[in-house]
């Protein structure tokens, strides 16, 4: 009925708002200047970066995974961090790829890393982009 339609519209508006907010939070670093890349990777401010070319980085229709967008929004709100997506296989001005330059393991997919504090960025475990499974009911519980 009417109430179901209103709930559906609110859900769609909420999803559109989240996508808009995430699209403003997540930047593309593919065409970034060497200075911008240096700032993102070693500048000290926190950056969460997803290698878009890694397996399972994007959904089947080429969109950012919802879990990555949610993490980007959460980090932006809590740490004032930036989030980015880039093709980590593309050569940098040095001729190396991001995988080579940052010594990332491209076989762990999707490739996600956190740059923070000016140290070498740290590769994060891909399972961080998985939604937690709902808890299984305990045996004997009703």
Summarize the structure.
With 142 residues, the chain is α/β, with parallel strands linked by helices.
Describe what this molecule looks like in 3D.
The protein is of the alpha/beta class and 142 residues long. Helix content is 36%, strand content 14%. The protein is built from four helices and five strands. It has helices spanning 2-25, 34-42, 66-79, 98-101, and strands spanning 26-28, 47-51, 82-86, 112-115, 122-124. Strands 1-3-2-4-5 form a five-stranded mixed beta sheet. Strand 2 (47-51), helix 3 (66-79) and strand 3 (82-86) form a beta-alpha-beta unit. Helix 1 crosses helix 3. The longest helix is centred in the N-terminal third of the chain and has 24 residues, at 2-25. The two termini are 32 Å apart. Residues 5-22 have low confidence and may be disordered.
Helix content: 25-40%
Run of helices and strands: HEHEHEHEE
Distance between the termini: 32 Å
Structural class: alpha/beta
Radius of gyration: 18 Å
Number of strands: 5
Shape: globular
Which segments are poorly predicted (pLDDT under 50) over 5 or more consecutive residues? 5-22
User: What percentage of the residues does DSSP assign to strands (E)?
Assistant: 5-15%
Report strand order across the widest sheet.
Answer: 1-3-2-4-5
**If you average the pLDDT, what whole number results?**
78
Strand count, sense and barrel status of the largest sheet are: 5 strands, mixed
Individual helix count: 4
């Amino acid at each position: 009925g009417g109430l179901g339609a209103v709930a559906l519209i609110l859900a769609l508006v909420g999803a559109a708002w989240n996508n808009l907010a995430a699209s403003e939070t997540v930047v593309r670093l593919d065409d970034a200047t060497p200075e911008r890349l240096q700032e993102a990777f070693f500048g000290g401010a926190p950056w969460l970066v997803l290698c878009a070319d890694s397996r399972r980085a994007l959904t089947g229709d080429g969109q950012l995974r919802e879990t990555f967008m949610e993490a980007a929004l959460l980090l932006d709100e809590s740490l004032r961090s930036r989030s980015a997506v880039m093709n980590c296989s593309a050569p940098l001005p040095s001729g190396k790829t991001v995988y080579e330059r940052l010594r990332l393991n491209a076989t762990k997919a999707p490739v996600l890393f956190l740059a923070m504090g000016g140290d070498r960025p740290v590769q994060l475990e891909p399972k961080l982009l998985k939604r937690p499974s709902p808890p299984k009911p305990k045996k004997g519980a009703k």
